[in-house]
Fold:
Amino acid sequence: MSKTHDALSLSYEEWNRILTGELELPRYRADQICQWIYQKKVFDFAEMTNLSKELREKLPASFTLFPPMIIKEQASKDGTRKFLMQLTDGEKIESVLMDHGSHSTACISSQVGCPLGCSFCATGIAGFVRNLTAGEIAGQFLAMEKRLGKDINNAVFMGMGEPFLNTDNVLAAILALSGPKMRNLGARHIAVSTSGIVPGIIDLSNFEVPVRLSVSLHAPNDALRSKLMPVNRKHSLESLMDALRKYQERTGERITFEYVMIDKVNDSADNAYELTSLLQGMGAYVNVIPYNPVTEKYARSGEARIKEFCAILTKYRIEHEIRREKGADIDAACGQLRVKDV
Ligand code: SF4
Structure:
């Protein structure tokens, strides 16, 4: 008996290899099945009506096809929707959809929880359970599209977890989402956000799909960054910036830096000057994000402070914007994802 494959974790080439090899089927069957799954969002082989009845009955013996199941949905006043999804082993994750009519973005998770323990982040505070499979990652996107009833334009890996602690599965999910015979989402519409895992940045710069990269920076010097983000003790700012420069040399891509503004922690004028010198000469874009408190330890910077900080970035020609907050009322904003009991 052939082994069971996780359908949503497969690339188009793998579909072809398995169907033509193990199952001795013609190549066009891969096109048909991928079209059902990725275009029509049909997740039951029995409903794939252009396959023969015999084949429809045979496929479940070789493939499992279970996207994460949406078990709860919350809608924010600003149109952001947060989904609690259950995985086949009962673990739960959250994914967020920002739908603005013609323009929609899915924020997807790469791990159940996160082991990196950033002190300002709800996911980090809640701890780590396990990595997601490639199918569970791509499946979040498909499950949201099915629920929405239309295509989603963008995928950002900014949900729960650090993508580059699960690089192989994240890259496999990107292959599935971007493959022309699969979901066919353009590489420019996919962004991976990392806390600064250097080997992952190097892997991404060698990856065949030129997706965008963003870095959760949040502090402009090692002492402060190590306090906020323990990952910095392993991957210092110097090694991170070095990897980013190499990524940029190789890809020519601008890098987005996320900088969450925490009152009297990382929002001083000195911090702004340090940030400008860190990013000077790079193709950089800074998202300045007013902090969404998830712990009493930290508060959001005041508006005047944020403006002063941004004025320094402007003076030194560091491109930036203050990011409009989305979904804060349903804990769907940056750093707020944490699976709560339902
Ligand atoms: S900010 Fe990102 S890397 Fe840090 S704990 Fe939260 S999910 Fe993990």
In short: Residues 114, 116-118, 121, 123-124, 160-162, 195, 216, 335 surround iron/sulfur cluster (CB under 6 Å). The radius of gyration is 21 Å.
